[in-house]
Amino acid sequence: MPSVRVPKVPIPTRQRILNEAERLIALKGVYGVTLRDIAAPLRVQVPAIYKHYKSRDDVLIELSRQYIALLASQFKLRPELPPAAALRAALDAFVELMMRHPAYVRLALVDFATPGGGMEYVKLAAGGSFKENFFGGPLAAMHTRLRKLLRAGIRSRDFRHIDASDVYRLVKASILIRLVFPDDALLLRRPKPADVRAAKRWLWDIAARHLAPRRGARGQLTSPLSRCYI
Asked: Which residue, 33, 177, 21, is CA-closest to 109?
């Protein structure tokens, strides 16, 4: 049978604008990108962008919504795996998300740097504060899955009792800093497979040490908390 050529579906202009904004933010930073910068590679004039977005901030909020949608799918449950392996698989996917979308790293860092001032793009895209999204909003289901992953590890005695929000703080802060300090070279190019593997091992080592059950003087497991917060 002769092969059938499937015609390529053109990318809508609205999405092309977002794709170019994401590429440029990774290279130049959130505040270093203008609408003129976005328009030039697309071979359009700035007024053409205004047909799809009201402003530069509108472009960045919509790009943040894409980030929130991908973030909301993280920490998938893997009931076929032992608890520690399931959490490690979830953290591996989290690392891949951040390393394959460096613009999202920069957007997240801007949100942390602008409390009550400036434009908090990710918070606007999430429809509320990060704290509110623990139990409501588009990220609530992600946090629920993380709590379930941790509960399974506590029941199997692989993990100690710990607040799930503390685990999320640890892994998110760790991978963000890994990608920008002491330099942001990993944000400026496509990461090599070895780079991704190294970051996965590094994050798991941090998380595993933090979650490991603590042992008393006689080698018995002890809990630092009097109650389970997860």
From this structure: 177
| Chain centroid, CA 55 distance in Å | 25
Q: Is it the case that residue 7 has pLDDT exceeding 90?
A: no
Exposure b/e, 182-205, CB count within 10 A at least 16 = b:
eeeebbeeebeeeebeebbeebbe
Place of tokens 């509960």: 151
Distance CA 180, CA 98 (A): 11
Closest of 53, 63, 48, 71 to residue 140, by C-alpha: 71
Domain count, the chain: 1
Tens of pLDDT, residue by residue over 176-198, are 999 999 999 999 999 999 999 99
Residue 175 within any structural domain of the chain: yes
Neighbour tally for 155: CB within 10 Å: 10
Say if residue 191 is preceded by a cis peptide, omega within 30 of 0: no
Task: Give the burial class of 225: count Cβ atoms within 10 A of its Cβ; 0-12 exposed, 13-18 middle, 19 or more buried.
Answer: exposed
Is residue 93, in this structure, part of any structural domain at all? yes
Q: Is 173 a member of any domain?
A: yes
Q: What is the DSSP letter of 12?
A: P
Task: Output the six-digit token pair for 87.
Answer: 């959490």
